Amino acid sequence: MAIRLEKGQRINLDKNNGSKLASFCVGCNWGAIEKKTFFGLSKETIDVDLDLSCVMFNEQGEICDHIYSPLYKPDLLSKFGLPPGKVDSLDRALHHSGDDLQGDKGGDDGLDNEIITVDLNKLNPSVHQIYFFLNNCGQEDFSQIPYAAIRMYEGTPSKVKEVFAQYDVAAESKYQGKTALIMGKLYKRNGEWKFAAIGDAYDDKFLGFTIHRIIKDYAK
User: Is the model's pTM score more than 0.90?
Assistant: First the structure.
């Protein structure tokens, strides 16, 4: 049975059979916004464009790699001292499935909208922390999005074999005005990988603000 994580919870990557979770998907799932119009007789569906990204840090808390959308404009990234986006880590241990510009329409389809596949066995040993986060590229905030979740599972981007852990973020008023969400992190402790659910929301208007926030407040 999948572990249902709560904010701040930390878990080991121990499977039921005694082995360690090493090759898996980290997926984020979210729904499009549905609004009723014309006295509730019809509805309007609004696309939700969230971007799942991750940044990797060494033991000294310095960024050593990243994955975020290549669609981000290089001139904007350069203002934050950030390189262009890419979908593969340097060691090819992590890979991004690509941008989803809409979110689920008509309810949860059971698959994640954006997925980063992870193979810890291929990961460069200098990597000690990996932060996963979402940025909203539209006009809406997280209080309007019907659901958002991050989960770790065995399988592929198109087929879920077994869910290991999931952290859900419901549409709540506390997320009003919040357009960035630091979902969680993989981190190495005494040579073993663990996962922590973070779930902190901010009003960052651009991915660069979120990355600088992670550097300053989380990765030390």
Answer: yes
